Amino acid sequence: MFFFFVGGVSQQVRQVLKSGAGRCISCGGRADLVEYEKVLKLFFVPVWRWPGKDPLMYCNNCELFFPPELSPPPTPSPRRRLPEESVPNLIRCRYCSREVDSEFRFCPYCGSAL
């Protein structure tokens, strides 16, 4: 008798507690402090959800969950504030590690999806 099991457990963001609370340990992008939940999926259909224990940091750029203790602090703001339009919002490409404007959907250097 042969059984083929397609499924697994994954993590999903349930609620953002603090936006931009730190930086990602992998790509250096902005990371949010979030509450998360674990999801059991069978044949790609969620069948059971349960909350995670402690809040985690979540990077929207590379979709990494990691403990807040490992996160470097957010970059300090300069003493003289510039208008928001003149400050570029940059993220790092997870494949070539170059800085890319956050409004881009694809890296202009290597062509990978951001």
From TrEMBL:
It comes from the Eukaryota. Transmembrane segments: none annotated. Residues 23-111 form the Zinc-ribbon domain. It comes from Actinidia rufa. This is Zinc-ribbon 15 domain-containing protein. Signal peptide: none annotated.
